[in-house]
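Researcher: I'd like a candidate sequence for this fold, 359 residues long. If you have to choose between options at a position, lean toward the conservative one.
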C-alpha cells in the first residue's frame, strides 16, 4: 500500500479472541464452549495538502480464526485499497439533495446495528439503559408490537445466535439457554424484541396472543467471569429477497443516485430515531452506470422513514456479514461482538448532505 503514490501512512493489525466459557446452574446445566473471533484492522491514509483521505473497514471481523486472515489476500488487495484512498483526494464533492442510495452490505450492516439492533433491545425499550445508552422509539411494547410498520412488506429481519461465522454466534447463552432464531421484523412489521429469561415473561401477553412459547431468545451475555450477565444483542440480519439480483443489478436499475461502500462516521439520537451516516467510498450513479467517485457524502434519516423507503434488495448470493468487534453497553460497561448480515439494498430519495462544506 505504501508503494502507491500519494499514500503517506498505513496502520494495520491483527486481533484474536479465544474464549473458554464454562457455565453451571442449579437447574443442572453444565456447559463448556470455546468461542473464536478475529479482527483485521487496516487503515490507509493518502495526503495531498491541505486535504487527506482514508480508506478503512475493508475486512469485517468474524467468528473464525487464522484461516480467515489468509483468505483476505492482504498483500494482493492492499494496492487496490490504497488507490481508492488516493482517488478520494480528487473525487468530486457531492451536491446536497435527495438521491436514491444503493448501499453495500459493508456499509448497511452498521445502519442495521444502530437503527434496528439497538432500539429492539427490550431492556432499552423499557428504560433500563436510559442513564447511559439511551431509550428507544420502539416502545412501549403494547403500542408497537404488531403495529409499527418498520419497513416494506418484503423486509424481514432475523435475530439469531446460530449463523456460522457470525460474532454473536454461541451454543448456549450465559443463562444456559439454547438460543433460537426469531423474526424481529416480519413482513415489514415490528414483531419481537431481544430477550433474556427474565424479560421473556414481560411479553407473555404477546406470545400468548400469537400462540408461541414464552421463552428467552438466548440473548444473555457477560463479557467475563467477573461481569453480570444481561441482555446483549444477537446477530441481527436483513434477510435476502426472493429475486436473484445483486449489487450491479441495483446500480443498473438506478437513474440518479449514490452507491456507498464501507462504514464511516455516524451520529444517532438517544432514541435511535434521527441519524446521520457516512461511509468509506462513494460513487455517483447516472443512468444505471457508475459515473465517478464522490466525497464528503453523508445521509440523514429518521429510522421508520428510511426503512420504508427501501424498494429493492439483493438475493441470497449477495448476502454478506458485517460486524462490530466491540459494542458497548451497561454500567459498569461491558463489550461484546456482534454481526449483521445483509444484502445490497436501494433506498429512494434520501437526504444527502456535504460534510466538507464550510460556512
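Model: Candidate sequence:
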Amino acid at each position: 500500500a505504501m508503494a502507491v503514490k500519494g499514500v503517506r501512512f498505513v496502520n494495520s493489525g491483527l486481533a484474536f479472541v479465544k474464549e473458554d466459557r464454562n457455565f453451571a446452574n442449579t437447574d443442572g446445566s453444565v456447559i463448556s464452549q470455546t468461542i473464536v473471533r478475529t479482527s483485521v484492522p487496516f487503515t490507509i491514509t493518502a495526503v495531498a495538502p491541505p486535504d487527506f483521505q482514508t480508506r478503512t473497514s475493508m475486512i469485517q471481523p468474524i467468528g473464525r480464526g487464522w484461516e480467515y486472515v489468509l483468505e483476505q489476500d492482504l498483500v494482493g488487495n492492499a494496492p487496490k485499497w490504497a488507490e481508492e484512498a488516493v482517488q478520494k483526494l480528487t473525487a468530486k464533492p457531492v451536491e446536497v439533495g435527495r438521491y436514491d442510495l444503493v448501499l453495500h452490505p459493508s456499509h448497511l450492516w452498521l445502519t442495521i446495528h444502530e437503527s434496528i439492533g439497538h432500539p429492539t433491545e427490550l431492556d432499552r425499550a423499557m428504560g433500563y439503559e436510559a442513564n447511559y445508552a439511551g431509550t428507544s422509539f420502539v416502545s412501549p411494547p403494547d403500542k408497537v408490537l404488531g403495529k409499527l410498520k418498520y419497513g416494506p412488506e418484503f423486509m424481514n429481519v432475523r435475530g439469531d445466535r446460530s449463523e456460522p461465522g457470525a460474532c454473536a454466534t454461541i451454543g448456549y447463552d450465559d443463562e444456559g439457554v439454547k438460543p433460537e432464531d426469531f423474526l424481529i421484523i416480519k413482513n415489514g412489521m415490528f414483531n419481537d424484541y431481544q430477550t433474556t429469561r427474565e424479560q421473556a415473561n414481560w411479553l407473555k401477553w404477546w406470545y400468548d396472543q400469537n400462540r408461541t412459547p414464552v421463552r428467552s431468545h438466548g440473548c444473555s451475555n457477560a463479557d467475563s467471569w467477573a461481569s453480570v450477565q444481561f441482555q446483549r444483542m444477537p446477530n441481527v440480519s436483513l434477510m435476502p429477497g426472493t429475486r436473484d439480483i445483486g449489487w450491479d443489478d441495483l446500480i443498473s436499475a438506478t437513474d440518479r443516485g449514490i452507491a456507498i461502500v464501507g462504514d464511516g462516521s455516524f451520529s444517532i439520537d438517544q432514541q435511535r430515531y434521527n441519524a446521520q451516516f457516512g461511509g468509506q467510498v462513494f460513487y455517483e450513479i447516472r443512468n444505471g452506470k457508475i459515473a465517478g467517485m464522490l466525497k464528503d457524502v453523508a445521509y440523514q434519516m429518521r429510522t421508520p422513514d428510511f426503512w420504508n423507503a427501501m424498494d429493492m434488495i439483493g438475493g441470497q448470493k449477495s448476502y454478506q456479514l458485517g460486524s462490530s468487534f466491540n459494542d458497548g453497553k451497561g454500567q459498569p460497561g461491558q463489550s461484546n461482538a456482534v454481526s449483521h448480515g445483509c444484502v445490497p439494498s436501494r433506498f429512494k430519495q434520501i437526504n444527502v448532505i456535504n460534510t466538507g462544506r464550510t460556512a
